[in-house]
Amino acid sequence: MINAHTHVGLVNAAKDHYPETETLVTYKALKDLKNGLKGGVTYIRSCGVPFDVDVKLKNMRNDYPFEGPGMRPAGMPISILGSHADQPLGENHELNASHLVNSPDDVRKAVREQFKKVQKILN
Length: 123
Hints:
The protein contains 4 helices and 7 strands. The mean pLDDT is 88. By secondary structure, it is of the alpha/beta class. The strands form 3 sheets. A 3-stranded parallel β-sheet has the order 1-2-3, covered by helices on one side. A two-stranded parallel ribbon has the order 4-7. The chain has a two-stranded antiparallel ribbon with strand order 5-6. InterPro entries: Metal_Hydrolase, Metallo-dep_Hydrolase.
Protein backbone atom coordinates (compact mmCIF):
# COMPACT_ATOMS: atom_id res chain seq x y z
CA MET A 1 0.00 0.00 0.00
CA ILE A 2 1.22 3.52 -0.84
CA ASN A 3 0.55 6.55 1.32
CA ALA A 4 0.64 9.34 -1.26
CA HIS A 5 0.27 12.25 1.18
CA THR A 6 1.89 12.17 4.57
CA HIS A 7 3.91 14.40 6.87
CA VAL A 8 6.09 12.02 8.88
CA GLY A 9 7.37 13.40 12.13
CA LEU A 10 4.83 16.15 12.66
CA VAL A 11 4.74 17.04 16.32
CA ASN A 12 1.79 18.34 18.28
CA ALA A 13 3.94 20.57 20.50
CA ALA A 14 1.01 21.74 22.62
CA LYS A 15 -0.01 18.15 23.29
CA ASP A 16 3.53 16.84 23.73
CA HIS A 17 4.69 19.73 25.94
CA TYR A 18 8.06 19.89 24.19
CA PRO A 19 9.46 22.49 21.81
CA GLU A 20 9.52 21.21 18.24
CA THR A 21 13.19 20.55 17.56
CA GLU A 22 14.93 18.61 14.80
CA THR A 23 15.65 15.82 17.28
CA LEU A 24 11.99 15.46 18.23
CA VAL A 25 10.79 15.60 14.61
CA THR A 26 13.36 12.93 13.65
CA TYR A 27 12.29 10.70 16.55
CA LYS A 28 8.62 11.07 15.60
CA ALA A 29 9.40 10.46 11.90
CA LEU A 30 11.19 7.20 12.66
CA LYS A 31 8.29 6.12 14.87
CA ASP A 32 5.73 7.10 12.18
CA LEU A 33 7.66 5.20 9.50
CA LYS A 34 7.88 2.06 11.62
CA ASN A 35 4.16 2.24 12.46
CA GLY A 36 3.29 2.78 8.81
CA LEU A 37 5.19 -0.32 7.80
CA LYS A 38 3.45 -2.33 10.53
CA GLY A 39 0.14 -1.06 9.14
CA GLY A 40 0.93 -2.32 5.64
CA VAL A 41 2.32 0.85 4.04
CA THR A 42 5.27 -0.08 1.82
CA TYR A 43 5.97 3.34 0.26
CA ILE A 44 5.26 6.95 1.20
CA ARG A 45 5.31 10.26 -0.58
CA SER A 46 6.29 12.80 2.02
CA CYS A 47 4.58 16.16 1.51
CA GLY A 48 6.56 18.44 3.79
CA VAL A 49 8.50 17.96 7.00
CA PRO A 50 10.24 20.58 9.16
CA PHE A 51 14.04 20.63 9.16
CA ASP A 52 14.12 18.54 5.93
CA VAL A 53 14.04 15.46 8.18
CA ASP A 54 12.59 13.25 5.44
CA VAL A 55 15.39 14.23 3.04
CA LYS A 56 18.04 13.61 5.70
CA LEU A 57 16.59 10.20 6.62
CA LYS A 58 16.48 9.15 2.97
CA ASN A 59 20.11 10.26 2.52
CA MET A 60 21.39 8.29 5.51
CA ARG A 61 19.27 5.16 5.10
CA ASN A 62 21.88 3.12 3.19
CA ASP A 63 24.53 3.67 5.87
CA TYR A 64 22.19 3.59 8.88
CA PRO A 65 19.19 1.36 8.08
CA PHE A 66 15.93 1.83 9.96
CA GLU A 67 12.50 0.20 9.84
CA GLY A 68 9.99 1.84 7.58
CA PRO A 69 8.57 1.97 4.08
CA GLY A 70 10.41 3.31 1.07
CA MET A 71 9.95 7.04 0.64
CA ARG A 72 10.04 9.96 -1.72
CA PRO A 73 10.93 13.01 0.40
CA ALA A 74 9.86 16.60 -0.14
CA GLY A 75 11.74 18.49 2.56
CA MET A 76 10.32 21.59 4.19
CA PRO A 77 6.96 22.89 2.98
CA ILE A 78 6.71 26.18 1.12
CA SER A 79 4.07 28.44 2.57
CA ILE A 80 2.83 32.01 2.63
CA LEU A 81 3.18 34.14 5.73
CA GLY A 82 0.33 33.46 8.16
CA SER A 83 -0.71 30.09 6.72
CA HIS A 84 -1.10 26.85 8.65
CA ALA A 85 2.54 25.97 7.92
CA ASP A 86 3.78 29.26 9.40
CA GLN A 87 4.64 27.68 12.76
CA PRO A 88 7.46 28.53 15.16
CA LEU A 89 9.99 25.77 15.88
CA GLY A 90 13.09 25.27 17.96
CA GLU A 91 13.96 25.56 21.62
CA ASN A 92 13.19 29.30 21.61
CA HIS A 93 10.85 29.45 18.60
CA GLU A 94 13.69 30.89 16.53
CA LEU A 95 12.96 28.75 13.46
CA ASN A 96 9.99 28.16 11.17
CA ALA A 97 8.29 24.96 9.97
CA SER A 98 8.37 26.03 6.33
CA HIS A 99 10.01 28.26 3.77
CA LEU A 100 7.94 31.42 4.16
CA VAL A 101 7.27 33.16 0.88
CA ASN A 102 5.54 36.45 0.12
CA SER A 103 6.11 36.96 -3.59
CA PRO A 104 6.52 35.00 -6.82
CA ASP A 105 10.29 35.53 -6.57
CA ASP A 106 10.29 34.10 -3.03
CA VAL A 107 8.39 31.05 -4.29
CA ARG A 108 10.83 30.48 -7.16
CA LYS A 109 13.81 30.75 -4.81
CA ALA A 110 12.28 28.35 -2.25
CA VAL A 111 11.36 25.81 -4.94
CA ARG A 112 14.89 25.90 -6.35
CA GLU A 113 16.41 25.41 -2.88
CA GLN A 114 14.15 22.45 -2.11
CA PHE A 115 14.60 20.90 -5.54
CA LYS A 116 18.37 21.08 -5.15
CA LYS A 117 18.19 19.19 -1.83
CA VAL A 118 15.75 16.54 -3.00
CA GLN A 119 17.08 16.13 -6.54
CA LYS A 120 20.41 14.82 -5.26
CA ILE A 121 18.77 11.74 -3.76
CA LEU A 122 16.26 11.03 -6.53
CA ASN A 123 18.91 10.51 -9.21
